[in-house]
């Protein structure tokens, strides 16, 4: 063993007797301020994570808070379309990106707003993608934001890990659907959050049921929901169970999600604001 290994190298804080954890957090640009950061996570794609991110932001903004969305779903960005945004974000004299602002005043940054052509596929490897997320946080003008929602890529891979390590995430919301192996998905997300020391603020089950327009009965198309049992097992809040509504898809497709009446999000948004605002 070399002398250096016996005494600990300078790059290894543990061996050198310094047990302070390494801080991987990216810094905000000078003058930027973001008070609370909420990550929206899911086990797989297509369960409605972007919808939940968008609607939570809309309700938070409607409640009078300065709200932003950081679209960290770098390879599958769907936030700009839901808000009818296109084109490219501006850059200020310090080469910082200026987020695009929606009709009601939500600041948004997304890969689709930096590409020359939003139909171009994003064929970047993990480290590049992770770097883009950090730039979205640290090389953007975030003007006095009260609540930022981060639309995470699905799963528990490289990019979610980077987001958790680089951004000061105050809590996550897990989005599931009844078709999934809910218990497993929730446990994976929980384990990841626990390892990263991030609180789970609650679970939202999307596509829970469909209300028939003729008989007004709830139909559980994907079978019975197990979300309450799973949540109770882990001591988590079920923030909402959302219906399947064709109008949601229409609002997203026409870029009018901001003007879609979605009463199911009133209570979850109020609870998240209440939990975090004074922390
Ligand atoms: N409750 C719902 N009722 C009807 N359509 C829905 C509902 N939730 C989501 N959708 C539609 O399903 C599609 C997928 O939703 P969304 O993009 O929010 O999922 P996602 O989890 O973010 O997927 P990805 O990670 O692949 O981007 C969208 O077209 C959306 O409009």
Automatic annotation (TrEMBL):
Gene3D superfamilies: P-loop containing nucleotide triphosphate hydrolases
Sites where the protein binds ATP: 43-50
One Pfam short name: ParA
InterPro entries for the chain: Mrp/NBP35_ATP-bd, NUBPL-like, P-loop_NTPase, YlxH/NBP35
Keywords in alphabetical order: ATP-binding, Hydrolase, Iron, Iron-sulfur, Metal-binding, Nucleotide-binding
Entry's family note: Belongs to the Mrp/NBP35 ATP-binding proteins family.
Subunit structure: Homodimer.
Role played: Binds and transfers iron-sulfur (Fe-S) clusters to target apoproteins. Can hydrolyze ATP.
Name recorded for this polypeptide: Iron-sulfur cluster carrier protein
Source species: Johnsonella ignava ATCC 51276
């Amino acid at each position: 063993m070399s002398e250096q290994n016996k005494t600990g190298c300078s790059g290894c804080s543990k061996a050198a007797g310094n047990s302070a954890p390494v801080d991987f957090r990216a810094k905000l640009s000078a003058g930027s301020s973001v008070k609370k950061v909420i990550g929206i996570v899911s086990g797989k794609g297509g369960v409605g994570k972007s919808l939940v991110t968008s609607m939570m932001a809309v309700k938070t903004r409607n409640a009078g808070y300065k709200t932003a969305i950081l679209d960290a779903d770098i390879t599958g960005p769907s936030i700009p379309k839901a808000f009818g945004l296109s084109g490219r974000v501006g850059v200020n004299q310090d080469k910082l990106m200026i987020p695009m602002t929606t009709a009601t005043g939500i600041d948004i940054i997304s890969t689709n707003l930096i590409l020359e052509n939003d139909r171009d596929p994003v064929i970047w490897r993990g480290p590049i993608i992770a770097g883009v997320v950090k730039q979205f946080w640290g090389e953007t003008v975030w003007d006095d934001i009260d609540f930022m929602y981060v639309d995470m890529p699905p799963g528990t891979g490289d990019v979610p890990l980077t987001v958790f390590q680089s951004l000061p995430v105050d809590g996550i919301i897990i989005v599931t659907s009844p078709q999934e192996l809910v218990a497993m998905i929730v446990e994976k997300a929980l384990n990841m959050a626990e390892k990263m020391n991030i609180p789970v603020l609650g679970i939202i089950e999307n596509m829970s049921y469909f209300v028939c327009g003729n008989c007004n009965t709830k139909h559980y198309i994907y079978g019975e929901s197990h979300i309450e049992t799973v949540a109770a097992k882990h001591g988590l809040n079920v923030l909402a169970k959302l219906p399947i509504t064709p109008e949601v898809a229409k609002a997203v497709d026409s870029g009018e999600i901001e003007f879609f009446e979605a009463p199911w999000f009133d209570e979850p948004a109020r609870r998240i604001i209440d939990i975090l605002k004074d922390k």
